[in-house]
Amino acid sequence: MAAGTLYTYPENWRAFRVYVLSAPPHFHFGQTNRTPEFLRKFPACKVPAFEGDDGFCVFESSAIACYVNNEELWCSGCFADSDIVPAASTWLFPTLGIMHRNKQTTENAKEEERQILGPLDTHVKTRTFLVGERVTLDDITVVCTLLWLYKQVLEPSFRQAFPSTNHGFLTCINQPQFRAVLGEKQKPQAERKEETKAAAPAPEEEMDECEQALAAEPKAKDPFAHRPKSTFALDEFKRKYSNEDTLTVAPPYFWEHFDKDGWSLWYAEYRFPEEPTQTFMSYNLITGMFQRVILFGTNNSSSIFVVWVFRGQELAIPLSPDWQVDYESYTWWKLDPASEETQTLV
Fold first, then answer.
1. Pair 178, 143: CB distance under 8 Å
2. Mean pLDDT value across residues 301-312
3. InterPro entries per the record (predicted)?
4. Domain CATH code at residue 57
5. Which of 164, 17, 125, 141 has its CA nearest to residue 76?
6. Is 121 within 8 Å of 163 (Cβ atoms)?
7. Cβ contacts of 299-303, under 8 Å, gap ≥ 24
8. What are φ and ψ of residue 301, in 5° steps?
9. What residues contact 294, with CB distance under 8 A and at least 6 apart?
10. Cα separation of 99 and 55, whole Å?
11. Is 34:45 a contact under the CB 8 Å cutoff?
12. Integer distance in angstroms from the first to the last C-alpha of the chain?
């Protein structure tokens, strides 16, 4: 077996097949592989990359595995790279945040992976290992290629169609050579979900000054929490107003369902109509306090008034500081919902 230095990064599944064959040194991806010394040996700047003690340099995981093990890679190893990896990458990468998920593309990749695993399952049905009676580079290559599929996306409903492949995968990852590299016993995706649920919650991130100030503010209370329940559902009226005729349907619905004991009507008029000499000035005043309004009038001839529907019998504006913007610039009157004048105004 060739001795030397393997350059890669932690949890690189492409390097696992070489890990099983040799113990690699520490390597910091993103720095080591961009140094002039590294680029002189490996101009492609790719990892995993291997430098033998004799100075021989080679990159690409399959080539490294063959060189390190002094073993020819059988067709099943090439099959892993050419068939399993492309579909697996399309299916896996969105779950790892590497690429955006496209539903149709993912479904196609799942079906392609199903077609690939079928012949593999047939092949290992009468075999313990892919080639011969012991673990070979072919087993290492295929198992390491399947590892993230089993860890991340192969749910029981998908796996059950390939019992021989499942058995072969579990047999291999529990071999001493695999355990030495993979550490804890690797478990299929569904079992890992259960462990995640039982895991301790991650510590909260430290808040910055702004977040601390917001968190220190007292929680706002619902100003209407103490009010008794009312039969008038304002949201239902809003749906009528938004979706049906605003003249023939919405007003009759309002008066038919209005709860005069639980709600009140208020009229507000701007106290300084001479100040907004331009229509845009009136509009700015309106949008400072109200939403979804239409301005009628012309320059030097406009006035602002509005009818409010409030929960309870008191003017609701003073109940919350957030509502009090500009409200003192208006004169307020409580309306009698039973009067014909009020109904015409509304």
1. yes
2. 83
3. EF-GSTs, EF1B_G_C, EF1B_G_C_sf, Glutathione-S-Trfase_C-like, Glutathione-S-Trfase_C_sf, Glutathione_S-Trfase_N, GST_C, Thioredoxin-like_sf
4. 3.40.30.10
5. 141
6. yes
7. 302/273, 302/276, 303/269, 303/270, 303/273
8. -155, 75
9. none
10. 37
11. yes
12. 91
How does DSSP classify residue 46? Answer: -
Both tokens assigned to 116: 């690939």
Confirm whether 101 is domain-assigned: yes
Residues 84 and 168 in one domain: yes
CB-CB contact of 327 with 289 (8 Å): yes
Using the structure block, give the residue that is written with the tokens 């619902």: 222
Give me the percent of the chain exceeding a pLDDT of 90: 1
CA 327 vs. chain centroid, Å, equals: 42
**Ordered strands of the 263-270 beta sheet:** 305-311, 263-270, 330-335
Whether 292 shows a pLDDT value over 60: the answer reads no
Per-residue pLDDT of 128-143, as tens digits, reads 887 667 777 777 778 8
Residue 285 tokens read as: 């005043």
CB 260 within 8 A of CB 338: yes
- Helices assigned H by DSSP within the chain: 13-19, 36-41, 61-69, 75-79, 85-92, 103-124, 137-152, 156-159, 163-173, 176-182, 189-198, 209-216, 234-243, 250-257, 279-289, 340-345
pLDDT digits (tens, 9 = 90+) for 13-46: 565 655 555 544 445 455 566 778 887 887 767 7
DSSP strand pairing (330-335 vs 263-270):
antiparallel
Instruction: Mark whether 57 and 83 lie in a shared domain.
Output: no
In a domain, 242, yes or no: no
Q: What is the pLDDT of residues 237-269, one digit of tens each?
A: 888 887 888 888 888 999 999 998 888 999 888
What does the block give as tokens for 75? 């067709």
pLDDT for residue 289 is more than 70? no
Domain that holds residue 20: 4-69
Kindly calculate the radius of gyration of the chain based on its CA atoms and give it in whole angstroms. Answer: 36
Exposed / middle / buried, residue 256 (Cβ in 10 Å: 0-12, 13-18, 19+): exposed
| 60: nearest Cα among 14, 12, 29 | 14
